[in-house]
Design goal:
By secondary structure, the protein is an alpha/beta fold. The chain has five helices and five strands, in the order βαβαβαβαβα.
């Protein structure tokens, strides 16, 4: 599994020459409502097993949570189920708020 920092992800999203990854936010609804990276899709961690068929196995997927622990677990789960292009956002949205978008609410 790949790891990516918040600044690296921001650069990827800003690069029009690169295909945009699928941003999979695995936090809870209230967390997503508090703050999220633009374009992210919410799929809370506990729903992933039941909704795995909703995900494109061939897509570049970046897993996102608050600090990076839950998303790391989801990324490992996806890899065990045949997803080859999975990346974990190290530090999660908290790192994004500190390093990329200081206007993002923190919790």
């Amino acid at each position: 599994m790949q790891q990516i920092t918040a600044p690296e992800l921001a650069a990827w999203l800003a690069d029009e020459k690169r295909a945009r990854p699928f941003l999979l936010d695995v936090r809870e609804n209230w967390e997503f409502d508090t703050c999220h990276i633009e374009g992210a899709t919410l799929m809370p961690m506990q729903t992933i097993p039941a909704r795995i068929d909703d995900l494109d196995e061939d897509a570049e997927i970046v897993c996102i949570c608050h600090h990076g622990a839950r998303s790391l677990q989801v990324a490992a789960f996806l890899e065990r189920h045949g997803f080859a292009k999975v990346t974990n956002l190290t530090g999660g949205v908290h790192a994004w708020a500190l390093q990329v978008d200081e206007s993002m609410p923190k919790y």
